[in-house]
Amino acid sequence: MAALLELEDVHARYGAVRALHGVSLEVGEKEIAAVLGANGAGKTTTLRAISNTVRRSGAIRFAGKSLTRRTPEAIVRLGVAHVPEGRGTFAELTVDENLRLGAYTRRGSIKDDLKRVRELFPWIERRRDQQAGTLSGGEQQMLAIARAIMARPRLLLLDEPSLGLAPLIVSELFRIVNELNEREGTAVLVVEQNANIALDAATTAYVLEAGRVALSGPSAELRENDSVRRSYLGY
Ligand code: ATP
Fold first, then answer.
1. Structural element, H or E, at residue 78
2. In tens digits, what is the pLDDT along the chain, a chain of 235 residues?
3. Looking at the domain assignment, is residue 164 inside a domain?
């Protein structure tokens, strides 16, 4: 069966700075995959290449369609939702307004989607009128994910969701990502510096080094790999 997302020999750059040098990877339908790597390895750029928010070349296909020439908005409409690093909620708007914005690419009633989101994040209903900027870091990250899934994506791109959060909150966040994946079959490509938690959540992982995939395979195998252990797991 063809993968849901396929990247083949993807290059990307910021002006004269080349950030990706031929990245190839796949995410299966309903799969959670992880991209690991040190600072500056190209993890964020890989997600930006998928959502077409960086200059890139190479083949990128989603559900059998090429994303190469599509606008970022067209890519969202096809079913790819991107939660950027640093949360990306609108601080001045309420929780409820943030959620409604997440559904802007869709027509029709969003009642069912608000219900789906409340099932995954029960606290959201109680805080619906609170300004997003006054939520805790963990709540803001959850709201960013909740807003993304209002668009009913088939693939969720998560950029460093654990950044700056306490370990317990990180576990809760990944529990919810797993629940979303199991309940709704949403595929996830998560970029993480926290290799431990990412390898627990994902079935497949890719290790990026200097804009290239240095290693890839089933998470369980990468966990046993000596260089992954030394460089990313710290034991
Ligand atoms: P981090 O964990 O620090 O975000 P990363 O693995 O996500 O790291 P990228 O942000 O994708 O790495 O960066 C890849 C390379 O591209 C780095 O060399 C970085 O300095 C460069 N880069 C990233 N953003 C820009 C930009 N806006 N302008 C110029 N160079 C950039």
1. helix 72-78
2. 579 999 999 999 999 999 999 999 999 999 999 999 988 999 999 999 999 999 999 999 999 999 999 999 999 999 999 999 876 788 999 999 999 988 877 767 788 899 999 999 999 999 999 999 999 999 999 999 999 999 899 999 999 999 989 999 999 999 999 999 999 999 999 999 899 999 999 999 999 999 999 999 999 999 998 888 888 887 7
3. yes
* 211 CA from centroid of ligand 1 (Å): 10
Residue with the smallest CA separation from ligand 1 atom 21 is 19
10 Å CB burial of residue 163 (0-12, 13-18, 19+) is middle
39 CB under 6 A from ligand 1? yes
Cβ(37) – ligand 1 distance below 6 Å = yes
Question: Alpha-carbon distance 213 to 73, whole Å?
Answer: 28
Give start and end residues of each alpha helix (H) in 86-218: 95-102, 111-120, 123-126, 137-149, 167-184, 195-201
Residue 124 lies in a domain: no
Whether residue 162 has its Cβ less than 6 Å from ligand 1: no
User: Is residue 140 one of the residues assigned to a domain?
Assistant: no
Structural domain span for residue 171: 3-83+152-233
CATH number at residue 216: 3.40.50.300
- Name the domain count of the chain: 1
Residue 116 within any structural domain of the chain? no
